[in-house]
Amino acid sequence: MVQNMIKNEADAWDLTQEVFLKVWKALPRFEARAKFSTWLYRITHNVVYDWLRKRKLDSAGEFDDAILSEGAVAAGSSTTPQQDLRPDHALENSELGEKISAAMATLSAEHRETILLREVQGFDYKEIAKAMGCSLGTVMSRLYYARKKLQTLLNDEKGNL
Amino acid sequence: MKKEISEELLVKWVDNALTQDEANEMKAHLQEDSSLAAELAEMRKVSDRVRREVPASVEPPYPDFFNSQLMRKVDLDQASQMPKEKAKRWWRGFFQWAWAPAGAMALVLAFLAGQRLGPEGADPGALTQQRADLPTVYFSEDSLDAEMISDANGDLSAIVVNGLEAISDDASFVKTLPAGEELPVSYQHSEAKRFH
User: Fold this and answer.
1) Does A33 map to a domain?
2) How far apart are CA B58 and CA A74, in angstroms?
């Protein structure tokens, strides 16, 4: 999740360790009012957004989009827990994965996170709202516009997916 | 037409998460706008692709190194927390047990302060001032001599006699005369005058 949000591998692993550390420290205060996974992603959300905010401040107020594509982990990469595919399919998937990865990188952090939590992590709408600290209506709006933008971006190159 | 449809309805249609009422409502919208179905179907396709292509999790390139680094951070964090905890415990222990010696110390200080201040106007330091206008004290015995001292204002004065023999610790004073002896007559007279 952090890698998909940050895309800079070294920073992503550092942030992942920070997330684990915060979780370990906050574990005694965890109340089972929310699912553990939601709570875990809430901490991840805070860590990632703190980092993005800091990077934004460091770059004198201009968000550096290069962060998002720098050292990108291609979707469908060898680390993806999937079954082995036929080489031709793997290549096709890899190309498509790269396109999706590039399109995702152009989304805003909020839209990207919403898409990742919904499509990749399989969260339901309420869980997304809790993890991101926003309303259900905001989640719906972000999901709709993120999907619409992805659709536009992925159709731009060849006219279809 | 599409603008009238809520984003929630569109999102739920893509996710196949519509309730029966919402599905009926959506069916009506789709019948009104023929291009809407194709657009939403395309959107669903994009969602499916993202779901399939983007990895949900990635293994660290060197898991052992990652774990050892993480444990080191945990250890460092614990180490940085320990002095605070110790300090907290020390203060708690200090307040719990220090009240007795602190109280004793306060009593000693109060006692010393009382000794130094003394009663108002009885400053022994001031009494040591010798003044030229004070009377001179004479004794018939040559072995004795005296000096008169006074405070700065002349409100308090004292005569210090030097040369008197110290009274021994075992000295006793007889309150009654031995049988058969009487006080001198002159003494008896002076005593009678004093009491009457």
Assistant:
1) yes
2) 11
Could you tell me if A79 lies within 8 Å of chain B, comparing CB atoms? yes
| Ranges B21-25, B108-112, B145-149: which has the least confidence | B108-112
A-B interface: how many C-beta pairs under 8 angstroms? 93
Give the three-class secondary structure for B147.
Answer: strand
Among the partner-chain residues B8, B43, B51, the one whose CB lies closest to the CB of A148 is B43
Look at the block and give the residue holding tokens 């619409």. A148
How sure is the predictor about A125, in pLDDT bands with cuts at 50, 70 and 90?
A: very high
Within a domain: A161: no
Q: Within a domain: residue A70?
A: yes
pLDDT in tens, A81-112: 444 444 545 555 667 888 888 888 899 999 99
Given an 8 Å threshold on Cβ–Cβ distance, is B49 in contact with A100? yes
Query: What confidence score (pLDDT) does residue B117 get?
Result: 56
Whether the pTM exceeds 0.90: the reply is no
**Which of A67-81, A98-112, B70-84 is the least confident region?**
A67-81
pLDDT class of A62 with cuts at 50, 70, 90? low
Count of the separate structural domains present in chain A: 1
Asked if B54 contacts A77 with a C-beta cutoff of 8 angstroms, the reply is: no
Nearest to B50 among A93, A120, A148 (CB): A120
Nearest to A114 by CA among A97, A96, A138, A98: A138
Provide the CATH number for the domain around residue A128: 1.10.10.10
C-alpha to C-alpha distance for A23 and B143, rounded to whole angstroms: 94
CA torsion A85-A91-A95-A97 (nearest 10°) is: 20
H/E element holding B157?
strand B157-162
User: DSSP code of B4?
Assistant: G
Question: Is residue A26 a contact partner of residue A69, using CB atoms and an 8 Å limit?
Answer: no
**Do the domain assignments include residue A160?**
no
ipTM score: 0.72
User: B145-150 and B157-162: which strand pairing?
Assistant: antiparallel
Asked if the Cβ–Cβ distance from A147 to B14 is below 8 Å, we say: yes
Give residue A114's Cα distance to chain centre. 8
